[in-house]
Amino acid sequence: MAEPLYRLAPDLRWAVEPTGLILFDLRTDRTWRLDYPHAALWDLLSRGYRSDRLERSLGAIAGLEVRATRRLLRETLDTWCAEGLILKEGSDG
User: Which domain range does residue 73 map to?
Assistant: First the structure.
C-alpha cells in the first residue's frame, strides 16, 4: 500500500518568523502560530515529503527517538487534517 501524501490546504499562506511560522487562512482570516519542531514539519510538508521521509527528517531535526517521532508526526498530521491546514491525498479538499 502506498504511503500517504499530505499537501497544504490551498487557501493558506505562511510567513517565517524568528521562532517559527505564522499561517494565514485567506478564506477565514484565521491564523496559527507554529513553533519548532512543528514549523520544521510544515516546511517538510511544503516540499512534498512523503510519510517515511517526513519521519526520518523530523526525527533528525528534532533529535527524537523513533517512537517519539512517530507519535509527534501522527498527532500533528491528524490535528492539522482536522483543522483543515493540510489535506491527505485522495481526500476531498
Answer: 6-77
C-alpha 1/C-alpha 13 separation (Å) is: 31
For the stretch 56-86, pLDDT in tens is 999 999 999 999 999 999 999 999 999 999 9
For residue 89, what pLDDT band results from cuts at 50, 70 and 90?
confident
Number of structural domains the chain divides into: 1
Q: The pTM is what?
A: 0.86
Q: Is residue 52 part of a domain?
A: yes
C-alpha to C-alpha distance for 5 and 1, rounded to whole angstroms: 12
Residue 92 lies in a domain: no
